[in-house]
Design a protein that fits this description.
There is one protein chain. Helices cover about 25% and strands about 40% of the residues. It is α+β, with helices and mostly antiparallel strands. The longest helix has 17 residues. It is globular, with a radius of gyration of 15 Å.
Amino acid sequence: MRLEQASPAVRERVRDSFGRQGLMSHLGARLAHIGPGRVHIVLPARPEVTQQHGYVHAGATSAVADSAGGYAALTLFDEESEVLTVEYKINLLAPAAGDHLEAIGSVLRSGRTLTVCRLEVHGVRSDGSRTLVANGQQTLIRVSRTVG
């Protein structure tokens, strides 16, 4: 399945913002796809992001889901706007196992002030098999870009 790419300017803006996120860097997450209203983030399964049973920790799983949704929303905003999460709900459906997790944020509705996104996180194994390990929904608010 070929995914639509966002414009080069939007991809650059998202990459720049993502690069300023200390948590994503700390977790070892990376952007895998930036499309209009859709962003994928990959999180390698490493000992530093696991819980006591060896699965990727729910906090790490939730963090990449939140960021994927936020950046999906940002792809639809003008360059003078930024995004903040207002709330999100995540359901952990299966242990977060695999070689990496792939978080997918998809915009369901982009409004003038509030945007709602669907969140999915899949555990991906080296053979390409995928398991939906978490899903959720998120509400974001558009804010004016801060200078500084």
